[in-house]
Amino acid sequence: MAININGSTGISGVDGSAGTPALQGTDTNTGISFGTDEVNINTGGTSRVTVDSSGRMGVGTSSPSTSLAVRTSGASIAAINTHCLISDSTSFATGVGGSILFEGNYTSGGATAVYAGIAGVKNNATDGDYGGNLVFYSRANGSLPTERMRITNGGDVLIAKTVLTTGDVGVQLEAVGAVAATRNGGLCFIANRLTSDGALVSFRQDNTEEGSITVSGTTVSYNGAHLSRWSQLPGGATREEILRGTVLSNIDEMCNWGEEENEQLNRMKVSDVEGDPNVSGVFQAWDDDDDTYTDDFYCAMTGDFIIRIAEGVPVHKGQLLMSAGDGTAKPQDDDIVRSKTIAKVTSNHVTCTYEDGSYCVPCVLMAC
């Protein structure tokens, strides 16, 4: 191929096939032509690329409406521009840095519409702020393109919402690793195994599995778990040292969390009555995940846990336990489950020993 420059037709390709002089036989179907304030690249007798008087480039279209418009086989257009027309009549908000629009024919007559888009949007209106979000749009039948998902300048992924909050319907995948799903009504989470029984959810701490939810046929099992609830000390007292596994008893005070309605959660005290029928469970831990109410604690009530035994008091696997009246548990004098029964020892293994000589053993709690 050689180049032929002609004042009337512009620059065109010249057939340089074997045995033919290089400048002989101009290929009038292929070349670059110049119109009024317009440049076209032609192949096969058709304009393939057009640059118009505004500097807009069209690939597969001679009438680009954006900085770069690409048409494929008359079916769709991917357009990139800096001011972002997302629909036939609605522009993006101020602050859009660029977008990719996906447009196609929706009638046999060739009428087109934007079906979806991706845009880079300034994070806020503060002058000099370079933070930006990546926003994804799609279009429902009979409506304009609507934002469906965004990746924020902080790395959070928001689906069907624009703000990182559990108060809005949608799904958020936080950059810190948290996941939240909010609905007005209905299921928020489905775990579904199609071909076999086994684990549905694995609960881990420092990469070690501590519990799981498994399915076997029609049975769902909660493994390595116990039921617990929030509580507070008498009078809403501040934190004090309470050893893990210490026996607790119910009192006639309700927990208080400001304006929050509480119908069922009562306060507790360290058990001080031997054989107390008001035993409520054992102390698990202070709640360190709440920055507002810092004196709440978890009471383990039913299921697998540990329980505290006083120094010098022997217990054995299979024994039923009751309150010893000093925050520890001791064996019952019979093997009948009663209102004072708080637990059953499941192993002679000592899990921990405290400075006062008291120690903990594994048990099944029976406090409720």
Description:
By secondary structure, the chain is mainly beta. Among the domains are: about 1-50, no CATH class; about 190-225, no CATH class; about 225-365, Beta Barrel (Virus Head Decoration Protein, Chain: A), CATH 2.40.300.10. It is about 0% helix and about 45% strand. The protein has no helices and 28 strands. It is elongated, with a radius of gyration of 36 Å. The model is unreliable at about 15-25 and about 75-95 (pLDDT under 50).
Produce the secondary structure layout.
Blueprint: E1 2-6, E2 10-14, E3 26-35, E4 38-43, E5 46-51, E6 57-59, E7 68-72, E8 76-81, E9 96-105, E10 112-122, E11 132-138, E12 146-151, E13 157-159, E14 170-173, E15 179-182, E16 198-205, E17 208-216, E18 219-223, E19 226-231, E20 247-254, E21 266-270, E22 279-286, E23 297-309, E24 320-323, E25 329-331, E26 343-345, E27 352-353, E28 359-366
Parallel strand pairs: 6-7
Antiparallel strand pairs: 1-2, 2-3, 3-4, 4-5, 5-6, 7-8, 8-9, 9-10, 10-11, 11-12, 12-13, 13-14, 14-15, 16-17, 17-18, 19-23, 20-21, 20-22, 22-23, 23-28, 24-25, 24-26, 26-28, 27-28
Q: What portion of residues is helical?
A: under 10%
Radius of gyration over C-alpha positions, nearest whole angstrom: 36 Å
Largest sheet: 15 strands, mixed
Strand order of the largest sheet: 1-2-3-4-5-6-7-8-9-10-11-12-13-14-15
Q: If you average the pLDDT, what whole number results?
A: 84
Which CATH first-tier class of the domain at 226-366 would you pick?
Answer: Mainly Beta
Going by CATH, the homologous superfamily of the domain at 226-366 would be: Head decoration protein D
The string of secondary-structure elements, in order, is EEEEEEEEEEEEEEEEEEEEEEEEEEEE
Task: Give the helix/strand class.
Answer: mainly beta
Strand residue content: over 45%
Low-confidence stretches: 13-25, 74-94
C-alpha termini separation: 91 Å
Tell me the CATH topology of the domain at 226-366. Virus Head Decoration Protein, Chain: A
How many beta-strand elements? 28
Level-2 CATH architecture of the domain at 226-366 = Beta Barrel
- DSSP helical segment count: 0
Shape category: elongated
